[in-house]
Amino acid sequence: MPPIYLDNNATTPLDPLVREVIEECLRNIHGNASSIHAYGRRARVAIENAREEIASLLGALSHEMYFTSGGTEANNLAIQGIYLKEKNRGNHIITTRVEHPSILATMKYLEKEGALVTYLPVDNAGRITIHELQEAITDKTILISVMLANNEIGNIYPLKKISQIAHAKNILVHTDAVQAVGKIPVNIPNIGVDVLSLSAHKFYGPKGIGALYIKQGLSIEPIMHGGGQERAIRPGTENTAAITGFGKAAELIRAHLSQEMERIFNMRKKLERGILEKIPDAHIYGELDHRIPGTLNVGFTHIEGEALLLNLDLAQIAVSSGSACSSGSLDPSPVLLALGLSQQEAKSAIRMSLGRFNTEEEIDFVLEALPTIITRLKDVY
Ligand SMILES: *Cc1c(COP(=O)(O)O)cnc(C)c1O
Q1: Ligand 1 pocket mutation pick from 102, 212, 326 by most atoms within 8 angstroms of CB
Q2: In this structure, what CATH number is given to the domain that contains residue 262?
Q3: What are the tens digits of pLDDT across the range 170-180?
Q4: N or C, where is the chain less crowded by C-beta within 10 Å?
Q5: Active site residue 25
Q6: Neighbour-count burial of 52, counting CB atoms closer than 10 A to its CB (0-12 exposed, 13-18 middle, 19+ buried)
Q7: pLDDT for 318-354, tens place per residue?
Q8: Domain that residue 299 falls in
Q9: Confidence (pTM)
Q10: CB-ligand 1 contact for 353 (6 Å cutoff)
Q11: Which residues pair with 108 in a beta bridge?
């Protein structure tokens, strides 16, 4: 049965159909999309078809999508680009304490450049309150950036409501939707955000490619300068093969999302129920209902998450502990600390994230293996 991959929020395996498209592109399309000759035109067509596919998935227009090297770059471009454009109007930005490091580190950087940043607190289930958001707004607020879905606990945040509040006060809204796109339906006109980040490798596409949606009519400053690619918002020769793979990944999501969500939700529910039944002192972190279907963050009394991860790894079950993005560090997850967990509680948690290629049999196997490992680890204490 093993190996079993339950770390789909860190990255997903490439879908074989996506791989085929990339291989075909690498074999047959080598032109620079900016070239006017036939080679260039073929690359341009491949890129524009992918852009169209990704825009359709999100209910956006294709010229509202700008390719980047991934979610991190899209988040940097969004926040720095808006700040550079709008800083004469005001220097205040509102975000949350549970954002991805690519948001939080960008905010820290802008603080050194003169920005004033409010980090909204969350309750013990990871929720922000609209009241606190409203209280935080000042006449210097230019941007609110709140993630659509959290990578560690899976919570979904109320972007539609946030956009309504922000727009009534002439404030722009960005959302890091990297963990939402491909996992739940994301329709940009419906949530009403101005700028949105996504990344292909979180939904079975290749790593190193992502996109920023920028609403038609809105202009932001580029953070890189060069040739005029991506309408000078993100210059540099396009990664044609990765972009075609990204397009295919988006097409597969558009075709299969509703069945896939249900299947993944059912597997997670089974895993969650099984764990709570067999290990009664387990705690589930984050919102119980309002979250992306495949994410399960769970803590166990008197267990080190890191030790549990290593023992699961020996059993060929891959999960993550703490924050995957600062892996290698033994610091407790800042997201779990923001929920009010103690250092020890935060360190006891592991994240299991399910995806397209997991099966019920794998969940059954994990439900057999996990309690045995937990019991053994508790005996060591
Ligand atoms: C993975 C992730 C990112 C970073 O995306 P990359 O493409 O890996 O740079 C940003 N935000 C969230 C919520 C993520 O899960």
Answers
A1: 102
A2: 3.90.1150.10
A3: 999 999 999 99
A4: C
A5: no
A6: middle
A7: 999 975 445 556 789 999 999 999 999 999 999 999 9
A8: 4-12+257-380
A9: 0.97
A10: no
A11: none
